[in-house]
Amino acid sequence: MVHAGPARTLGPYQSKADRTAETVDSYVQTALLSIELADNTRVNLNTLSVQLDDAATGASGAHNSFDTVEPPSEIADQLQEQLDRLLSQVDGQLSALATDAHRHHISELAQHRQPLQDLSQQIKQLENQLS
Amino acid sequence: MKKVLSTTLGILTAVGGFVDIGDLVASSATGARFGMALAWAVILGLIGIVVFADMAGRVAALSHRAVFDLIRERLGPRVGLANLLASTFVNFLTLMAEIGGIALAIELATSVNYLLWIPLCALAIWLIVWRVKFETMERVFGLAGLALLISVLAVFQLHPDWNHLTSQAIHAAKPHSESWPSYWYWAISLFASAVTPYEVFFFSSGGIEEHWTKEDLSEEQANVFVGFPIGALLALALMALTAIVLMPLQIQVDHLSQVTQPVSLALGKLGIAALIFGFVACTAGAALEAAFSSGYAVAQYFGWPWGKLQPPRQAPRFHLVVMVATFLGMALLLTGIDPIKVTEYSLIFSAAALPLTYLPILMIASDPEYMHEQVNGRIRNFMGTVFLFIVSLAAVAAIPLMILTKGGA
């Protein structure tokens, strides 16, 4: 769970960025697992729809919460830009995925797998840089 | 068969107490973050609630007087009132969270937003309290809650590395990615989710409603020693499921929908259907317990007529408290408060308030004037005192840890 709050120096800001990245990646992994379950017809459509909706709203909530923290320096500005770009792409993918699930377009869910895996990898790389 | 059915009060108390909405998430969240390293907190909670409920049940069977009646008599009206306020606050938070939990579980089956289900759930809880017989209620929800045993089956179906799970549970080590304050915060949450005052109010008051006497002590003990271990088994199974499936993927559990994923992987659609049915039964059972407990605590403290077996006309203030608590909880939930967060905080406040209800029960159970030949023996007194020390430690640490970890983050 991400908590917004003031970050007076780069260290706490990086720590918030790290926690946000970790939270968002958790939702990406949740969505990827849901895609796998749907592929193998191991989940009913209503539950799948709620799983993906929760993943989309959870990730966008973490993103919005991070956006409320003001970057304390220029280096933090760059970090904010980098993370914001990634998180916006995640928001877009998860939102489209949730919409497909709502509309019961199950065959189209798999097309989100690769972009989400790529985004997850980029998030993990960023996490490694931060830790 | 009658013997089996007679343990349903314990089963309802236990599945509701151990596996309510907060615990569904707390057990699953700790499994995903700590593996089985915090299994000890569930076991410790199991022993604690067995000791606590057994004493409260014996007190009820022998004195025919309920917990709050005795708390007031033993501690005096002022300390009793402080106790009542703390317990009522925790009961209310729990009730609110459970109503939200039923709605979240129904959302999983229907994909209709949980906020739309909340008024119906609150109405259903109130109608059950008002209209349904106590025995029918405890049997239906107690036995339906056993559908959660599907989570035990799912653990076996996933063919886990048992050595690894056992090693995690035995070593109880903190993962490198977690901090010690978080570790202890979640340990206290798990412990508090097992040893909640509302369970004990419900269990002992339910015993009085069922007219337990000295001859019913074996039934009381069957309820305690069968019901609560089943609840603990379910909590451990949920923890194991997320430890096996979600932990390796680094998925943190923040939503009930994530708890369904391991069962889905193991058992497919039928498994999910049974799990959601179990979620609804357990959260509804816990909501009923918390609703009754709100009424029991207030009515017993003020000496009003109380009880499910009393027609509402003869116990109007008891039923009024239950009704107000239920619909006030509904109104607050409709503001959009996250029911899962409410339960997580209620567990911490519950831990902080626990010694207030635990101490008087221990004192009364050790007092030959009340208990006669059934007074606590050496072993029970030793266990009771050890747990008084543990619940006091948890109470002191709970709120500072909540602040320090920002709610276990």
Protein model, in words:
The complex is a heterodimer of chains A (131) and B (409). Chain A contains four helices and no strands. Chain A has 131 residues and is mainly α. Chain A has a single domain (8-130), classed as Four Helix Bundle (Hemerythrin (Met), subunit A), CATH 1.20.120.660. Chain A is elongated. Chain A starts with 9 loop residues before the first helix and ends with a helix. With 409 residues, chain B is mainly α. Chain B has one domain (2-405): Amino acid/polyamine transporter I (Up-down Bundle). In chain B, 79% of the residues lie in helices and 0% in strands. In chain B, α5 (67-75) packs antiparallel against α6. The longest helix of chain B has 47 residues, at 256-302. Chain B is globular, with a radius of gyration of 20 Å. The N and C termini of chain B lie far apart (47 Å). The mean pLDDT of chain B is 89. The chains are: A mainly alpha (131), B mainly alpha (409). The interface between A and B is medium-sized, with 28 and 27 residues.
Which helices and strands, and how do they pair?
The complex is a heterodimer of chains A (131) and B (409).
Chain A: H1 10-39, H2 45-67, H3 74-102, H4 113-130
Chain B: H1 2-6, H2 8-18, H3 21-34, H4 39-63, H5 67-75, H6 77-110, H7 114-131, H8 134-144, H9 150-157, H10 162-171, H11 180-194, H12 197-209, H13 217-245, H14 256-302, H15 316-333, H16 339-365, H17 368-371, H18 378-404
Helix pairs in contact in B: 2-8, 2-12, 2-13, 2-14, 3-11, 3-13, 3-14, 3-16, 4-11, 4-12, 4-13, 4-16, 5-6, 5-14, 5-16, 6-7, 6-14, 6-15, 6-16, 7-14, 7-15, 8-14, 9-13, 9-14, 11-16, 11-18, 12-14, 13-14, 14-15, 16-18
Domain count of chain A:
1
- Oligomeric category: heterodimer
Number of helices of chain A: 4
Number of strands of chain A: 0
What can be said about the biggest beta sheet of chain B? none
Please report the first level of CATH classification, the CATH class of chain A.
Answer: Mainly Alpha
Rough outline of chain B: globular
Q: Pairing-aware structural class of the strands and helices of chain A?
A: mainly alpha
> How many helical stretches of chain B?
18
Rg value of chain A: 15 Å
Beta-strand proportion of chain B: under 5%
CATH topology of chain A: Four Helix Bundle (Hemerythrin (Met), subunit A)
* β-sheet strand percentage of chain A: under 5%
The average pLDDT value of chain B, as a whole number, equals: 89
Order of helices and strands of chain B: HHHHHHHHHHHHHHHHHH
Helix content of chain A: over 70%
- Catalogue the unreliable spans of chain B: none
The counted number of beta strands of chain B is: 0
CATH architecture of chain B: Up-down Bundle
Helix content bin of chain B: over 70%
